[in-house]
Specification:
Elements: H1 12-20, H2 23-43, H3 53-82, H4 92-109, H5 118-137, H6 141-146, H7 152-165, H8 167-174, H9 176-183, H10 191-212, H11 227-236, H12 238-268, H13 274-299, H14 305-329, H15 335-351, H16 353-371, H17 376-404, H18 409-414, H19 420-445, H20 453-475
Length: 476
């Protein structure tokens, strides 16, 4: 943080707070994307020994959960937007409450009462999972960050550092299966205890960070939205619509990578090596995301956010196609070949994070210009819903690949040879489908309207409007 001016929002206290306030949100994301499905299918004890049944339960749960989010995210975002601004701000109280609930419910999700029947375990999972996802929804860190400044470079710094800090969570999850194996056994890793040991410290750090953050003044002049403003927003806010289209399509790349990679690693490189190999993969994830974030933060000084997003989508597709072709000819059973190629894709995906969030903030700014309505939480909720829907649909893709081959973890873990058709089915979900989505997202992103002069004109109009509102307030 050396070299930053000691003034809000780049002062040390605010930077420390903004760097840590989202740690629980990141932890929640890793829990439901990287750990939960494998926990249910392989280690939860639900429908143990019944081929395909646990995979079907996990697939259905995670998909239905995303349908719940379709309703939950939108009305929750609107309620946050119309809620009164407190002395702590509009968004900060929700970030605090959401983080606390997500931490508690996240631990409960992995502590399924073993004396319940299989049906009872399903009911427990549905109830806790739905509440957990609701809690994650109200951790509105992006709207909170957008209130601190309207300057692209300042926003890029405010987004980049938390992204890098959040990789502390990634480091820990890189060792997740190794820790769980150490606390349990190779055949029965202690996942519930490992979740507890990870969630508790990150929850505490998140709460400390939230307390230290001061919500900014950028959105103070905007009026609370009316219900009909949502329809107006969808109709008038063309940048928002285009962003939704390419975010929805392009987001499948990362969703499929995170949902499928552990299964591929487990069976391509040997079940007994899962703890070690998952650690390598986790460290690779950390390195690539940090590298990508630093690259994109620097790039935002020279190019627009939309240009950065377009280049990232276009660059990922060829490497994914190469991996698919290799996997079809011969399963990628050499971990270093896999890590080299997937690492390139993940670095590019990591570079997309900063410009993608800057675009979301641009659509919020456009909304304030056209409707004079503060709808940051609603816009953020729609984007969060897309991420969760992508994760749910990605889970279906993985589940379909597992169901096609009659996946049974207990049988496969004892098998002397893993069928190639399992890894090739996973390869379609992990490589081929993301390549198609990446290229389609690039084509859609080319139609984003706030490019070049159009973007400059929008911010000039916003600045003029802010001056007019200030003068009007002083004259009263």
């Amino acid at each position: 943080m050396k070299g930053y001016p000691k003034q809000y929002p780049l002062d040390r206290q605010t930077l420390f707070g903004i760097n840590t306030m989202g740690l629980m949100s990141t932890t929640a994301y890793y829990l439901y994307t990287a750990v939960l499905m494998m926990f249910i299918t392989d280690y939860s004890g639900i429908y143990s020994g019944v081929p395909g049944k646990a995979a079907a339960v996990a697939t259905t749960l995670l998909f239905v959960g995303r349908l719940w989010d379709a309703v939950n995210d939108l009305w929750t975002g609107y309620l946050i937007d119309i809620s009164p601004r407190t002395r702590w701000g509009k968004f900060k109280p929700y970030v605090l409450i959401g983080s606390l609930l997500a931490g508690i419910l996240g631990m409960m999700l992995f502590h399924i009462p073993q004396n319940f029947s299989n049906f009872g375990k399903e009911v427990y999972l549905y109830i806790v999972y739905f509440l957990f996802m609701f809690a994650a929804t109200i951790i509105v860190t992006v709207p909170l960050t957008s209130t601190m400044s309207a300057d692209q470079e300042v926003r890029a710094k405010l987004i980049s550092w938390p992204r890098i800090t959040s990789n502390i969570v990634g480091v820990v999850f890189a060792f997740f299966m190794a820790i769980a194996t150490y606390l349990g056994t190779k055949r029965n890793p202690n996942i519930p205890l490992t979740v507890d040991l990870i969630v508790i410290p990150f929850l505490i750090l998140s709460l400390i960070g939230i307390v230290m953050v001061k919500e900014g003044p950028v959105t103070e002049e905007a009026k609370p939205p009316r219900l009909r403003d949502i329809g107006q927003m969808i109709k008038i806010n063309h940048p928002f619509r285009i962003n939704l289209y390419f975010t929805f399509v392009g987001g499948f790349v990362w969703a499929l990578l995170t949902a499928t990679s552990l299964y591929y690693i487990k069976y391509a490189f040997g079940v007994k090596n899962l703890g070690t190999q998952s650690m390598y993969f986790g460290l690779l994830t950390l390195i690539t995301l940090v590298a990508g974030t630093l690259i994109s933060q620097k790039a935002m000084q020279y190019i627009s956010a939309i240009r950065g997003v377009q280049w990232c989508y276009l660059a990922m597709a060829p490497f994914l196609v190469i991996m698919f072709i290799i996997n079809e000819i011969h399963v990628i059973d050499n971990p270093w070949v896999f890590y080299l190629l997937i690492g390139i894709v993940m670095t590019i995906a990591g570079a997309q994070f900063v410009p993608a969030n800057l675009i979301i903030m641009e659509t919020m700014d456009y909304n304030r210009l056209k409707l004079n309505a503060g709808m940051e939480a609603t816009i953020n909720a729609v984007n969060m819903f897309l991420q969760k829907l992508q994760s749910g649909l990605a889970t279906i893709g993985v589940g379909a690949a597992l169901l096609i081959v009659g996946y049974n973890a207990q049988t496969l873990e004892k098998a002397s040879h893993v069928p190639d058709n399992l890894l090739q089915s996973l390869g379609v979900v992990l490589f081929a489908i993301p390549a198609v989505f990446s290229f389609l997202a690039y084509l859609i992103a080319r139609h984003y309207p706030l490019q070049g002069a159009a973007r400059d004109e929008m911010y000039a109009a916003l600045a003029a409007k802010r001056v007019t509102n200030t003068q009007s307030s002083k004259s009263k």
